[in-house]
Amino acid sequence: MVYYFSFRVVQSNIGHMLNGLGLGLFIGVISLFFGIILGLIVAFAAVSSNRAFNNIATWYTVFFRNIPLLLLAFIVYFGLPDVGIMMERKVSFIFTLSLYAGAYMAEIFRAGLQAIPKGIIEAGQVIGLTRFHICWNIQLPIMFRNVLPSMSNVLISLFKDTSLAASITVPELTYFARKLNVETFRVLEAWLSAAFLYIVTCYLMAYLLRKLEHKLRIE
Amino acid sequence: MEDKKVKKVIIIAMLISILLLSLTGIVSAQKSKLQTVLDRGYLLVGTGSANVPWHFIDEKGELVGFDIEMARILAIGLFNDPTKVKFVEQSPDARIPNLLTNKVDIVIQFMTITPGRGQLVAFSVPYYTEATALLIPADGKYKNYEEMVAAIKDGETITMATLLNIESNVLVQELLEGAVGTEYETVGLELQAINSGRADACSIDLSSALWLAKKEPEKYLLADRTAREMNNAAAMSPNDQVWINFVNLVFQDAMSGYTFKLYNDAYAKWFGGVELSEPKVGKPQIYR
Questions:
Q1: Domain count of chain A?
Q2: Structure confidence at residue B22 as a pLDDT band (50, 70, 90)
Q3: Domain locations in chain B as residue ranges
Q4: In the predicted model, is pLDDT for residue B288 greater than 80?
Q5: SS3 per residue for B237-262
Q6: Which of A41, A92, A158, A177 maximizes the CB count within 10 A of its CB?
């Protein structure tokens, strides 16, 4: 069977697709932001001397790193309303993705914290810095510089994961590509266009993040 | 001299082989899907598995439904045997790709005929005219269509889950003006939406709504409101007129001719409660 391409349908819907792309980027960035906060809390809990904190951190990362994101999205979106927690769909997905990102960031930060030489922390203690100042002025700056490449990977990964939000009707790029597909049967055109937009966006993100890494690197 | 004779024989043999291969190629190129299916011995049908009463898995774990019956009617037309059909379960997204790549011979998956889709596939004659209905959760805030209309007039927001489909937002407004539509990939997710309180109602095929309201009256109510009649048909590759003609012949005959009983029995089983008018003597039913 010969297939005749026609990108007219994509052209007439490009505005929706670009809006969807923008929404996906927004969700990815916001989720990373909350994921970083969660990840830091869990990472410090994981390296803490308090056994209870260690266990909570372990269970959190084990649970959220081993559950498929789509399943998690359905649990939050369809399941939580049954126990009285109803969130708007975008908020629901950001909440889900933040919890998910938090688990991955926790592991990245934990490794980053454990990689800081003990001597630097002891030097801080010797000069009389408080636990907070050691953490804020010594550990975190070193850790963030070291884990920036991994964080960049997580951001790009989170952005691609926003495609799953289409399943709970969040109007991002994949949602519109699917809608176009269903309405016009222009399967190849819809999915190829979406794929192209994802590839270009991810490539640009990786490029900009690499520039940032170079800028922040200590020579 | 001997060498020349041998060379002559080899050349003639090569020419004959090329000729035979070319003829085979011509025959293959002209071979219809109909012949391919007949040679294979069974029909490959693309369909879904999660939409009552069209195509779904019953308590015995078998794929059943009206689309399945139409496939079996086609198998009877081909092989005089309703079991000579294999089903390829596919999501709505995969309908066209599976046709394009010959993974299936035909798609019978309650497909709505639209001119836009007709540019890519060949539709059979319609085998059912559907309408869209409004399904309400039995334990929901609203018990009928009038209550929802009144609520919207009072400024309340009513959310309607709908299937990601042609003009689904227009359909939402035709069913309940002022409602906010949210589009889901599958009917299953639509139902989850109303079951979890994510939506106050859902727009769904009337046949599915009747089925659900009848089978689970403690969960679903059917609002007295329908909209947008549309024709469902099977889809085929557009380049094979022989196959298209055959499928149309089988379907038309089942709906109005010699094999009417097959269609009538399937209809009664899955859309029960409606008496179909039997074909009458004289002018064929399809032209009345």
A1: 1
A2: low
A3: 33-129+231-287, 130-230
A4: no
A5: CCCCHHHHHHHHHHHHHHHHCCCHHH
A6: A177
| Subunit contact B164:A178, Cβ cutoff 8 A | yes
B183 Cβ under 8 Å from any chain A Cβ: yes
Output the pLDDT for position A183: 81
Section B118-126 average pLDDT = 93
User: Under 8 Å CB-to-CB from A137, ≥6 apart: which residues?
Assistant: A124, A129
CA distance A194 to B11: 55
What is the C-alpha to C-alpha distance for residues A47 and B62, in angstroms, rounded to an integer? 53
Structure token pair of residue A216: 């922040």
Architecture of domain B33-129+231-287: 3-Layer(aba) Sandwich (3.40)
B159 at A interface, C-beta within 8 A: no
Domain B130-230 has what CATH class? Answer: alpha beta
Compute the distance between CA of residue B279 and CA of residue B256 in angstroms, rounded to an integer: 6
Tell me, what's the ipTM? Answer: 0.78
Residue A3 domain-assigned? no
CA–CA dist B245, B77 (Å, integer)? 13
Mutate to test the interface with B, among A71, A164, A187, A189 (most CBs of B within 10 A): A187
Residue A77: which of A65, A66, A68, A86 has the closest Cα? A86
